[in-house]
Amino acid sequence: xxxxxxxxxxxxxxxxxxxxxxxxxxxxxxxxxxxxxxxxxxxxxxxxxxxxxxxxxxxxxxxxxxxxxxxxxxxxxxxxxxxxxxxxxxxxxxxxxxxxxxxxxxxxxxxxxxxxxxxxxxxxxxxxxxxxxxxxxxxxxxxxxxxxxxxxxxxxxxxxxxxxxxxxxxxxxxxxxxxxxxxxxxxxxxxxxxxxxxxxxx
Amino acid sequence: xxxxxxxxxxxxxxxxxxxxxxxxxxxxxxxxxxxxxxxxxxxxxxxxxxxxxxxxxxxxxxxxxxxxxxxxxxxxxxxxxxxxxxxxxxxxxxxxxxxxxxxxxxxxxxxxxxxxxxxxxxxxxxxxxxxxxxxxxxxxxxxxxxxxxxxxxxxxxxxxxxxxxxxxxxxxxxxxxxxxxxxxxxxxxxxxxxxxxxxxxx
Lengths: 202, 202
Prior knowledge:
Two copies of one chain form a homodimer. By secondary structure, the first copy, chain A, is mainly α. Chain A has one domain. Chain A contains nine helices and two strands, in the order ααββααααααα. In chain A, a hairpin with a 5-residue loop joins β1 and β2. The mean pLDDT of chain A is about 85. Chains A and B meet through α3, α5, α7, α8 and α9 of A and α3, α5, α7, α8 and α9 of B.
């Protein structure tokens, strides 16, 4: 298809599609003339992924470019691809220099994670901040969050399609980025419900 | 205490404390002379909260100001205060105009949430994006996330201190903002562990 049809099918202005081409978020089409190129279903799928990352995923253009590089890199296994995607994704909040406590927690739960896993730093930074704010997370709270996270993650990983490494990577990236806002929104909604039951009634 | 000691105890440069005063994030101290003011333990606690919101919380100055206004507003109940804090907090990702599907899900789970709850829009936006990206969230996935969120939220709310509404509000704000990066980091770490068990070993 031509760029006009690609844009129409993705429900986007042609100018936006051209912008993504210039920014390297969308691979060039196959040249069919001096000013024409042909695009295929792969381009349409990529365009939808780009929209998801930049919109609800909340990624910047440069963060999206890094994530897409991880999607495109030939990975030996789904596990390697997941690691590359996590590394490319922006991390919420700030970081702590030495994630000693985070490492100890993960070890206590028996989780096998790489020594340089970026989420160890995110976790450490948030734990430091809770302490600094005067509300340190108790061991019980952390165990409870870890249990919930493990339940979700086990099934997240079980859902990864085994059809091809490329499909698996796309699935992992989309689900990591887009199920995070789902999880946070659900926690806030469930808090509202729980708070109404406990403190409401007015 | 004077501003120099306040800064020292908060482990911050005096210039940073003055900046927060100018930005209205920290209330002015009690004037004790033309160029002097006295600060107390409340100022120190506020300073730690500001640090947490701007640092690991990842809030902008204006978002932090809105959250602190919710903390300071006299709330009739903890439930009202939680609603005000949620409304002031930035929402991850983009939003959908009509959260019809999100509303239906919440109703199905039997959660009592306000019709204008901002998280309904966050949830709707993320669900739209998952669909647009070609990976719509199945009912089973959403039920699983909702179950995990409800387990966490019930205990979050049970932990809220009942000593005073002010304490409760501070706790709710800190825990909403700072346990979100904890939860996301734990999900990614648990995914890494689960992926290693399922796809690794090479």
